[in-house]
Amino acid sequence: MSNQSDIERYLNNRQKEIDGAALYRALAEVEKQPQMAEIYKRLAESEEKHAAVWEGKLAALKVSPPPRKLSWRTQTLIWLTKRFGPQFVLPTIANNEKADSSAYDGQMDAEAAHFSQDEKSHARLLALASNSTGGLPGGTVAQLEGRHRASGGNALRAAVLGANDGLVSILSLVMGVAGATNSNTDVLIAGLAGLLAGAGSMALGEWLSVQSSRELYEHQIKIEAQEIEENPEEEQEELALIYQAKGLPEERARELAAHMTADKTSLLDTLAREELGVDPEELGGSAYEAAFTSFFLFAFGAIFPIFPFLFWSGAAAITISLAVSGVGLFIIGAAITLMTGRGVLYSGTRQVLVGLAAAALTFGIGKLIGVSLA
User: Fold this and answer.
1) Could you say which DSSP state residue 247 is in?
2) Is residue 372 very low, low, confident or very high in pLDDT (cuts 50, 70, 90)?
3) Following CA atoms 198, 204, 206, 212 in sequence, which dihedral angle do they give, to the nearest 10 degrees?
4) φ and ψ at 152, to 5 degrees?
């Protein structure tokens, strides 16, 4: 029994490392900054070495592991990486690395303790790349700081929740109106009005948020540019202190700051990333792109409960709407597992139960209102 449990554990460990290596290779392929691409390649090599160790453990037990195959979660993250870029998935991958390192904590193998530290180190590095926290030695700091702010820390999470908001809110609205009236026209009008109002509200809110951030960053960068022009020595000292706060020795921090100060354009770019935590080229992302994306995601989720009422009526329309929405909710729950690492069946079922419970509540309230008015 002990051997069997060890075999299952080694297979699970191997799969995690294979998935991690594939993800890092995908990040390296699409990363535009050579320094970061090289870091991802090294992380992929580290994961490959870990996988080889677990395969060696299996070989010692005379077990031939199955052919290497990526999990569906990893395949999805790789597709998202190639489609939307590293910034879209970095926070999710960092959280997964942190969870994987914890999975090693209870294992007695000597390698497990070492690999746990490696995974925690990987998670810290990825958190730095996506959230601008912590520090790295040398010039790598400047490459990492202020990256990927357009997503507000996790674009994937925002995308999933945006679609979920549209589906749950409009499903509840549609069921409430369907409970109060037998008119398909009333349900469709209410559903479409809710879709446009909700999607429009989210789009406007996102536009205002991103545009306000852009204007603030532009103002702050202008102030930084003026300070560099008037007192470059003070800005160089400030930059050196920032590097020291990140853990660099004072001499190395001053050397790096002096190197950055030699080029005023480079210095402004670096200070914007280090001090303001923003990429001067992106300034927090496009307000119009953020608005359009929010509108589309909310509307996409809202379509699920509405469209059955275009083709059916009465109890049939309600039943089909609930069924279609249930499928949509399960898909959203499955997508959430990309960030949480929980089982697809658990997360999908939970999402369905919560969404349908909200729909049942509004349907019941609508029914009471309809009876009272009648």
Assistant:
1) T
2) low
3) -160
4) 65, 25
Given pLDDT bands bounded at 50, 70 and 90, which one contains residue 73? confident
Domain definitions of the chain by residue range: 2-84, 155-207+289-373, 213-276
The pTM of the full predicted model, rounded to 2 decimals, is 0.61
Instruction: Give the residue from 182, 196, 194, 220 showing the smallest Cα distance to 309.
Output: 182
Q: Report residue 243 as tokens.
A: 């590097």
> How far from 255 is each of 54, 59, 259, 261, 289, CA to CA, in Å?
43, 50, 6, 10, 40
- pLDDT at site 152: 38
Write out the two tokens for 233.
């020595």
Q: Work out the average pLDDT over 242-268.
A: 72
From the list 328, 324, 323, the residue with the least C-alpha distance to 298 is 328
For 81, the enclosing helix (H) or strand (E) is helix 72-84
What are the Cα distances from residue 178, in Å, to 76, 302, 306, 328, 372?
37, 16, 11, 20, 15
DSSP state letters, 251-297: HHHHHHHHHHHTSHHHHHHHHIIIII---TTTTT--HHHHHHHHHHH
